[in-house]
Specification:
161 residues; alpha+beta; 4-stranded antiparallel beta sheet; 10 strands; 30% strand; Biotin carboxyl carrier protein of acetyl-CoA carboxylase; lipid biosynthesis; lipid metabolism; Single_hybrid_motif
Length: 161
């Protein structure tokens, strides 16, 4: 089987909306899987990426400024340290719902268990379900719906207790 045949097979699988195709000969085997083919996950709106303007670092504060701000930041950081972060495993667009007319996967206060789907990240027209790697309660959702996310970007804070 040459590359043209493989490309034609891939086109056939995408048009047929099947989830998996296996092709075997005595010396060749190929499996093509589409994770969500034929499911109801379809977003009509095109993904538009907006980049925020880069923030210029502020000039150092004068020595006479009170040191309360760093203390507040340290307190907030220590407060968040008891939570586990669910991070994005890829670059793409973050969606809280499986499709625009469905309910969100999780809300703040919901209990999640290992393997529960918490969101979908669309990358190159593929919708990848992101599953929780921890059990606990969702404390905070750190990303807005339908916004671009980066690899390893925090998405959720979970209280494992």
């Amino acid at each position: 089987m040459d590359i043209k045949d493989i490309q034609n097979l891939i086109k056939f699988v995408s048009k047929a909306e099947v989830s998996e195709v296996k092709y075997k000969t005595k010396d060749f085997e190929i499996t093509i899987k589409t994770p969500l083919a034929g499911s109801e996950v379809a977003y009509a709106q095109p993904a538009v990426y907006h980049t925020a303007p880069q923030q210029v670092a502020a000039a150092p504060a004068p020595a006479s400024a009170p040191a309360a701000a760093p203390a507040e930041k340290a307190e907030a950081a220590s407060d968040d340290s008891k939570y586990v972060t669910i991070k994005s495993p890829m670059i793409g667009t973050f969606y809280r719902k499986p499709s625009p007319d469905k309910d969100v996967f999780v809300n703040v206060g919901d209990e999640v268990s290992i393997g529960k789907t918490v969101c979908v990240i669309e990358a190159m027209k593929l919708f990848n379900q992101i599953e929780s790697e921890v059990s606990g309660k969702i404390i905070k959702i750190l990303v807005d719906d339908a916004t671009p996310v980066e690899y390893d970007q925090p998405l959720f804070l979970v209280d494992p207790s």
